[in-house]
Amino acid sequence: MTDTLFSYTDAEEVTLFVDLVLPIPVPRLFTYRVKRDMAALIKIGARVIVPFGKSRVITAVVASLHNHPPQNYQARYVLELLDEYPLVTGYQLQLFAWMAEYYMCCIGEVMNVALPSGLKITSQSKVQYNPDFEHPDLLTPQEVTLMEDLKKHPSLSYEELGRLVGEVNVPTLIKSLVGKRAVIVFDEVKEKYVPKMVRKVRLHRNYEQPEQLLALLQRLDKLPKQQEVVMRYLRHVPMQRNPALNEQGLEKGILNQDDELSQSSLGTLVKNGVFETFELIQPRFSDTFSPQKEIVLTAAQRTASDSIMAEFAQKNIVLFHGITGSGKTEVYIDLIQKVLAGGSQVMYLLPEIALTTQIVVRLQKVFGDKMGIYHSKFSDNERVEVWKGVVSGQFQFVIGVRSAVFLPFDNLGLIIVDEEHETSYKQHDPAPRYHARDVAMMLAHWQQAKVLLGSATPSIETYYQAKQGRYGLVELFQRYGDANLPFISLINTKQEKKQKTMKNEFSSALYNALADNLERGEQSILFQNRRGYSPYLQCEDCEWTSQCLNCAVSLTYHQRAAELRCHYCGHKEDVPKVCPTCGSTKVRTVGYGTEKLEDQLQILFPAARIQRMDLDTTRAKNAYQQIISEFEHGNVDILVGTQMITKGLDFDNVSLVGIFDADRIIRWPEFRATERAFQMMTQVSGRAGRRADRQGRVLIQTSDPSQVVLQKIIDNDYLGLYDEEIVERRDFNYPPFSRLIKLTVRHTDQRVSKKAADVLCASLAAQLGDERVLGPEQPLVERIRNQFLYDILIKLEREKINFKAVKAFIQSCITDILTDKGLRAVSVIIDVDCL
DNA sequence: AGCACGCCGACT
DNA sequence: GTCGGCGTGCTC
Hints:
Layout: H1 7-13, E1 16-21, E2 30-34, H2 36-39, E3 47-52, E4 56-66, E5 76-77, E6 80-81, H3 90-102, H4 107-114, E7 126-129, H5 141-152, E8 156-157, H6 158-165, H7 170-179, E9 183-186, E10 197-203, H8 210-219, H9 224-236, E11 250-251, H10 252-256, H11 260-271, E12 275-281, H12 299-314, E13 317-322, H13 328-341, E14 345-349, H14 352-355, H15 358-367, E15 371-374, H16 380-392, E16 397-400, E17 412-417, H17 436-447, E18 450-455, H18 460-467, E19 472-476, E20 487-492, H19 493-498, H20 508-520, E21 523-527, E22 536-539, E23 556-558, E24 563-565, E25 572-574, E26 587-590, H21 594-604, E27 610-613, H22 623-632, E28 638-641, E29 654-659, H23 662-666, H24 673-685, E30 697-702, H25 708-714, H26 718-731, E31 738-747, H27 750-768, E32 773-777, E33 783-784, E34 787-797, H28 803-819, E35 827-832
Parallel strand pairs: 2-5, 13-18, 13-19, 14-16, 14-17, 15-16, 17-18, 20-30, 21-28, 21-29, 27-28, 29-30
Antiparallel strand pairs: 1-2, 1-4, 3-4, 3-6, 7-8, 7-9, 10-11, 10-12, 22-26, 23-24, 24-25, 31-34, 31-35, 32-34, 33-34
The structure holds a DNA duplex.
């Protein structure tokens, strides 16, 4: 500014602007004005509420503060400042920006998956009564009446709230209520938190004083049943000594003790006004933890832990390669304790399925309420609590799934990525399509934290880095408690079919083994990685098969639900009684899903108790836990399941694992198929024989036992697998020797989709060269939800490539397509480091 | 992503 | 004559 003469007055008049991250898929920040009274309080990383577009109000995060008024438009005002202390750290903003750049998406898309929806108040969000609300005394009179309304309604929308309170500023009101933890905010789309209610009873006020109580008991002398109920109540609520205890009452269930007589007596007492019933919302955080348990490491575990520490002195990333059942968890606990004692934070990542199991319980016993759990099965409100707990310092240690990398850590000392090879660490559907393992490494790099990658079957990429010396490597090949590795054998189904010894698709070997196990009272697990009853229906008289209308896949037959389902778009239809084409009644099921296996096993072994575990049986809230505990308590003889059973289940009594169809796992049309097959089958095998006193057995059904990977699985020969795979990867320039970016072009008109893909491919290849650009090619499922898909795969060697520049070029090619008149309607999905 | 604006078909 | 279909374009 040239106008220095008046700068002393200007200094006070300068308008403050903020650049905000909005949860909107637009590749830029948005500038808003800040009113003077807010200017002193607003900070980078704080959330604000702003008006956006014609009729929306949304939550944004402050990315920067400045005083440059925008040139081409008038900035609008920030409506409300939500956080006096930022809920988003500088590291997180750095992470958001990095992810948007690296994974080629918008920073708003990153923010959208990063923040739990409870932290994003918008004009679309709803509020409900917080079951854990503790301080009604803080409310203003207006808020008190509003809370009464909220108690009556399950939830209120933004508009409804506005109508109820009249002229008051709704965002301000919500801010106030959220701040007092009186309400919780949730996303209408997602399922809201359903508070658990307890039914309680208490004595009527008239009987609270000792003399009144005594009179009551005397009056009930002639009614012994009712007298007994009152006595029982007094035993649990000793109000003779302290009448105030009556206020809290007693749970109805405890008083009733499930006998009908006391129930009817209680009913009479309630009717006569002696007792009154009321309901209370059960607080969720009422668990108590057992005291800290001492963890004693075995010699091998001790050595491993020490070696990891030693490696960390040299390297920032260490691969901990330990076979299944070697007791990696104890080693982790040891390391976590060390890092926490040093005052740093720890993040422990696990794939979704593994997190639901015993590991959490085990860690909770050690770390108690200092440990936060970040899991998708938890309600959004609980995620918000974990987030705030990390900011406040309550949680120095969090165990969580993929999305835990977004938590506001600022002082990480250690990140553990367990089951490092798991593909579920890569987010597939909404952008950002990030890999939590890689993001974790970035976070660690910024915060000078160490990363421990754990796996029994490391990904080829990771093992390569370890071999190259870029990562430290610690291996633990001794099974915990000297349990033996299972004995794995192959069953040639082709041969058995020739000899006619198969029972349906069960080989005699598998059948006999299952029968033996049943007889001995030992448990078995049968693995089949396909849910439903059968992958499709087929007419025997014509060519008809069940096909999805919207996708190029067959409809899977689900017998239990009595419907045909598309596993891609979710479309459901009734099962036809006759062939829809020719009217024939000979419609048969083809192929085997877990449901059919369950059925056939029941026919083969009528006395066996069989349980199925797949997506369909575990959808309900606690179904997963229930199945596991049933199995654990020996109430199940044979557990049939998909991938879900491969992880984290440690059961003593399982002595047999059957892999129903190995061929299907091996012959996946993908360059990682062999690696996957090895990982998957090794993991399932690990479920067998986790006890020292006998060796578990694994039977693998295959039509071709000579397949190389099978022998490697039998020999538990990870190194052999690695040596072969790495050669192929090098020869064909696949990861770790290259990076892959997959572009998927989508449109409802196949010709448009194809044209766009061709044009895109040509412009990419013109610059990058034919050998780096593959396709366009129709994916395995060429049409999903009536959109025709074409894939383009870009291979970029690690050396001598300016990754950033290439990505910018790719982006420009896509922009060209999307501005082309005839092709602009297509959408292009970008997947960096696709799996 | 939402949301409005805008320009063409089957309905009271 | 309108209601509403979803194509296109914009949001500080």
